[in-house]
Amino acid sequence: MLFPDDLRYSSDHEWVRVEGDVIRVGITDYAQDALGDVVFVELPAIGTTASAGDSFSEIESTKSVSDIYAPIAGEVVEVNVALADAPELVNQDPYGEGWICVLRPADPAALAGLMDAAAYQALIEG
């Protein structure tokens, strides 16, 4: 399993990459592995405002349907439209081409409440 050090992680298995005044969000390698083959991703609508912990998207695999939760509060400003035709990108490249959306944080200080790679790894191994 990969846990890049430059990302922050939620206990719901989402990752966050800070990119200036926005954050890119996806699901972790651990989450995509647990899901199995991803066959559909329901992307959030641009302009959607989510509170931390809100379900704002769904991902369907051959095993199940799972919610994707907002790691922090914010507004969806971009979605990964490539997932409509190639949902398998979530499995193939969860930290790259398999990202879900970009959020503009309501409070950037909330990022401090997310885990670093070592804490996330301890969570899933514990």
Describe, in short, the structure shown.
This protein has 126 residues and is α+β, with helices and mostly antiparallel strands. The protein has helices at 29-35, 82-85, 89-92, 117-125; strands at 8-9, 14-19, 22-27, 38-42, 49-50, 55-61, 65-69, 74-79, 101-105.
Question: What are the defining features of this structure?
Answer:
6-stranded antiparallel sheet; alpha+beta; about 130 residues; 3-stranded antiparallel sheet
Structure overview:
With 126 residues, the chain is of the alpha+beta class. The protein has a single domain (8-125), classed as RNA polymerase II/Efflux pump adaptor protein, barrel-sandwich hybrid domain (OB fold (Dihydrolipoamide Acetyltransferase, E2P), Beta Barrel). Helices cover 19% and strands 35% of the residues. The chain is built from four helices and nine strands. Strands 1-2-3-9-8-5 form a six-stranded antiparallel beta sheet. The longest helix has 9 residues, at 117-125. It is globular, with a radius of gyration of 13 Å. The two termini are 15 Å apart.
Count of extended strands: 9
Name of the CATH superfamily: RNA polymerase II/Efflux pump adaptor protein, barrel-sandwich hybrid domain
Return the structural class.
Answer: alpha+beta
Tell me the number of structural domains: 1
Mean pLDDT: 96
Largest beta-sheet details: 6 strands, antiparallel
